[in-house]
Design goal:
The chain is an alpha/beta fold. It has eleven helices and 15 strands. α4 runs antiparallel to α5 and α5 runs parallel beside α6. The two termini are about 20 Å apart.
Length: about 300
């Protein structure tokens, strides 16, 4: 089975700033891929390059086996994109937005599908009238309309740029459950960025973490949670500083406690702790949000970079 998305050394500068730095990754067909990074890390820029909205300085990307810069209309019809903020023409009614979007799929020379019944069912489920003006809808309602429009062509690949940003807890959960239902169809691929780490942890098979434009992590979600550990060392008297070593992300001294975040904690780190005179060692698991925060705000350089294939 081929990869739905292939990115090879994709690079983009804005002025002198390199916002995306030689990123390479593959998203297998049928995978739900969570694309993470702090604000300004370059996530939206990379997604826009995937969608052909921003031109890369170098590198290339393919979506469904076609170059992202030269997608045929038939291939574009197989790809759905939800932009950050769910932009819609606010002067339209919901029904007008549906008919406008439908016109890009129905009666075209290339083969495409459009499920009117599905759109009606989604709008009815969320109690959104087709006569309502887009500008009068809440953020959550616009997200729901955008989702209905994106899924009506029954896409093979769904690209989402922070789809739950600005939504309240209840609407975000409903939106996420809709995505979960969507991905149950075999072979469909979802690539999405999000600031809601609990959402990512719930649905993503695999994650990538972008730090200052560099892809630092590309591995299964569970593996990342397993390999990033918080380690607490206790000492008699003031805790010493932990020396630089492989996998060390950050450290914090609090009296006789030394709190570490380590990627791939193992024998090397145990030996260092013993040599420093630690009287007790506690190794703790972290959820995805805690692991992400600890990893991306680490104060130890260089930041450990790892991939599933390399680390196995």
């Amino acid at each position: 089975m081929s990869d739905a998305i292939v990115i090879e050394r994709l690079t983009k500068h804005y002025g002198r700033k390199r916002v995306v730095d030689t990123v390479s990754l593959r998203v297998p067909t049928g995978c739900v891929y969570g694309f993470l990074g702090r604000n300004g890390a370059g996530k939206s820029t990379l997604i826009k390059m995937l969608m052909g909205m921003v031109q890369a300085d170098s590198g290339r990307a393919t979506l469904l086996d076609q170059d992202s810069r030269d997608q045929t209309p038939a291939n574009r019809a197989r790809i759905a994109y939800l932009a950050e903020g769910h932009p819609l023409y606010r002067g339209m009614s919901v029904g007008e937005a549906v008919r406008f979007t439908r016109s890009f799929y129905v009666d075209q020379p290339f083969r495409a599908v459009w499920h009117d019944r599905f759109v009606t069912q989604v709008l009815d489920h969320f109690r959104i009238s087709t006569t309502a003006k887009i500008r009068r809808l809440s953020n959550g309602q616009r997200a729901q309309v955008s989702l209905a429009l994106a899924l009506a062509p029954d896409p093979d690949l769904l690209v989402l740029d922070d789809p739950t940003l600005g939504l309240d807890t209840v609407v975000r959960r409903e939106f996420l459950e809709s995505i979960i239902h969507l991905i149950q169809r075999a072979g469909r691929t979802v690539f999405f960025s999000s600031h809601m780490l609990a959402d990512v942890e719930r649905v993503a098979d695999r994650i990538g973490i972008l730090v200052d434009g560099v892809l630092r992590v590309d591995c299964p979600t569970e593996y990342f949670k397993t390999v990033v550990r918080q380690v607490v060392l206790e000492f008699v008297g003031t805790a010493p500083r932990f020396p630089a070593c492989s996998g060390l992300v950050s450290q914090r001294q609090i009296g006789g406690r030394l709190e570490l975040v380590i990627v791939g904690y193992g024998a090397e780190h145990e030996e260092i702790a013993e040599s420093l005179g630690a009287v007790n060692t506690e190794v703790m698991e972290m959820n995805l949000e805690d692991a992400f925060i600890a990893y991306t705000r680490g104060d130890t350089a260089p930041l450990p970079t790892f991939e599933w294939e390399r680390a196995r």
